Amino acid sequence: MPDPTLSLIHEAAPEPCPARFNAADYVMAAGRQEPQKIALTVLSGEAEIAETWRFADLERAILGVAGALKARGLARGERVALRLGNVSAFPVLFFGIQAAGGVAVPTSAQLTESEFLRLAEDMRPRFAAIADDLVLTAQLEGVELLPEAIWPDLMAHPPGVFEDMAAEDPAVLIYTSGTSGRPKGVLHAHRAAWARRMMWRGWYGLGAEDVMLHAGAFNWTYTLGTGLTDPWAAGAASVIHSAPWGPETWPEAASAHGATLFAAVPAIYRQILRSERDLTTAFATLRHGLVAGERLAAGLHCDWVARSGKPLYEALGMSEISTFISSGPDTPTRPGHAGRPQRGRRVAVLEAGEPVPRGMPGDLAVSTDDPGLMLGYLNREEETAHALSGPWFLTGDRAVMDADGYISHLGRGDDVMTAQGYRISPQEVEEALATHPAIAEIAVTQIRMREDLALIGAFIVTRSDWPGDEALAAHAREHLAPYKCPHIWQPVEALPRTANGKLLRRRLAEQYVERVNLD
């Protein structure tokens, strides 16, 4: 038994994943019990139904994609990039690739062409499914394009089979920002889908009778996991919105479609609370809300509970392991804490590789035996090794564990920023903005303006005259996805650095907040 005075939780072993395991087959298996049940409802407008997919039709389309890709020569382990927007074809292609034994690589439609091309250079895909409105002007050498016009043919192709895969075989590649300045590929095995079962009780309270309303887009990993993989694996229904939305969209959709679970980032909950609607009526069928992607402010939590009358359960996770700490139906929320390690997880707070006494801050770590942990970073063996410390994967987060095992998140141990649920490397943003001819030096950091609001700020040493905020913002929009663009543009005479020349980004943020408060 672990010493209860140390910051180490391991209450039960996770349910073992079968040795032979295809993630797509697993996701579809429960739906075979009720093949005519609606698995997916796609909305447009506030509550209007644009599409419905029954489990039988969904599985048929996924196997059609699998058969078509195999017929085109897809080999096991080869990667297929997905560059398309918020459409139902995304999950069909995503699971079809895995069914065929390939590796699905979801990317955000917000990425610029140059950003996507950098990812393609790293991943070296065999195929790339690209939407008409995201077509590339540059050629991808050695890559067969799957244009939007042929997607229906792929789904209607004579069905293939769910390939017999090992649980350890690669299935999904997710690109996320890190401290190096360039997005890195997080490679996950098929077993990662099975490991998500620890969230079913630890966060969701998920069952076959549930209707999951998710506020994310199809191409976001938060939606692919929480919004689709988990509900479908449990035999539950999903409701996803595919069109532009406003604060009234989610209450209307929840009411019209009987949502029992609602998942979103904190910003969505803030927008809903601006609505004049009676939220207790709109969310009458809801058991509770789910929130992840950014820190949940205590004030927002209280406001939601007061207005809706429903609990709100937070989860903490990362691309390398998904969510592993949460509150939930069996874990009451506690102000200032993200929750407890989910049952089956082995989590610790470390200093120099050893668990610290409870109540002391340290490095948040997860056992390398966790079935949800990534296989590693693609083409980055050194970075993968650097993230490991004996039996632990170091998340890069700082945290404190209290006497009851609840975790308080103290922020990143590095400079990585978070916006709209995405992790963003300041170096990546700096490199893109530094191409502006007026910029001599630049530092980008996240500035916490208040508990529930953090903005990306750019601090710039110019070569001559200040070019103006709008010119800089336009330059950012040209080279970066919208969620990576700074909201604050600040001229400075020099950037603060250590004696060894290390940039002190956090000092810039602290100085900016001090000036704003003084003004």
Q: Could you please describe the fold and organization of this structure?
A:
By secondary structure, the chain is of the alpha/beta class. 29% of the residues lie in helices and 28% in strands. The strands form six sheets. A nine-stranded mixed sheet has the order 3-2-11-10-12-13-14-15-16, sandwiched between helices. Strands 1, 17, 18, 19, 21, 22 and 23 form a seven-stranded antiparallel sheet that branches. A hairpin with a 3-residue loop joins strand 2 (38-44) and strand 3 (48-54). Helix 2 packs across helix 3 (89-99) and helix 10 (266-273) packs across helix 12 (298-308). The termini are far apart.
Strand content: 25-35%
Main sheet properties: 9 strands, mixed
Helix content: 25-40%
Low-confidence region ranges: none
User: What is the approximate shape?
Assistant: globular
Give the strand tally. Answer: 28
Mean pLDDT: 93
- Radius of gyration from the alpha-carbon trace, in angstroms: 23 Å
Query: How far do the termini sit from each other?
Result: 55 Å
Assembly state of the chains shown:
single chain
